[in-house]
Amino acid sequence: MISIIITAFNETNTIGKAVESILKQNIREDYEILVVAPDIETGKIVEDYKNTKYIQDLGIGKPSALNKAFKETRGDILILTDGDVFLDNKAIIEILKPFENKKVGIVSGRPISLNPRENKWGYYSHLLTDLGAHETRLRRSRAGKIIVCSGYLYAFRGGIIQEIPPEAFSEDALISHLIFQKGFETSYAPFAKVYVKYPDNFKDWIKQKIRSTGGYNQLKYFIDDKRRMRSFLKESLGIFKIFNYPKTTREFFWTIELIFIRLYLWVLVYRDINLRKKPFNDIWVRVASTK
Known about the structure:
Elements: E1 2-7, H1 15-23, E2 31-37, H2 40-46, E3 52-56, H3 62-70, E4 77-82, E5 86-87, H4 91-96, E6 104-113, H5 120-142, E7 153-157, H6 171-181, E8 185-196, H7 202-217, H8 232-237, H9 249-271, H10 280-283
Parallel strand pairs: 1-2, 1-4, 2-3, 6-8
Antiparallel strand pairs: 4-7, 5-8, 6-7
């Protein structure tokens, strides 16, 4: 059996599409959909869908919501996604394929940006998903190295992870590392596509990246493994590769600007070196332009 967990918070405008993108797929195994959200409004929308159960969480963060869902899952494979994204028609089938290898413990899907490439922030979303995430995951997965799964869509074997620290800001990165430490392989399913709307302004972009990049930097509080997919050093060493991505002069200058924006982001991350001590809600804030 497969358990599909959708975490949401005030996603009344998108949760229906998220659930329907799962229901219309040709899933060949028995499955359940668990929608975890603190607001009743989101819950009311999903309660009429087949195979779908609403779980109300306390609204104190995504890790706590997932911990509650983990206790109610029945599946041998757990698939995690969000209430403000939607899956490709073959995403579930594709993300299950790597599990035919018994050594594989966790699999990442592939985020696809819905933002137009014609404006700066849309261009950044395509560059970072296509080059930064997709190509990196392909390369590391083929080399047998650990990859960090995308929180927008990933799956892992049931029973491996039963609870995660509620103060973790990047639960996808933490779960990826914990499963890898248990001796399982991490894998990538590039055809398991999930469609995502990314921030379209500087303020929201920083909010989101502080959470993800800062949360990844927070991993040192939870794990000892130094084999990381992301770091300031690794990002710096790969800086020249991004200049193969621009197709126009305008995109070339946007790429140069992105280098300085990312540098500013890392300054903020290291400034908040004691990120773990900050209240969860100070970091995990709603990014309005992604809804």
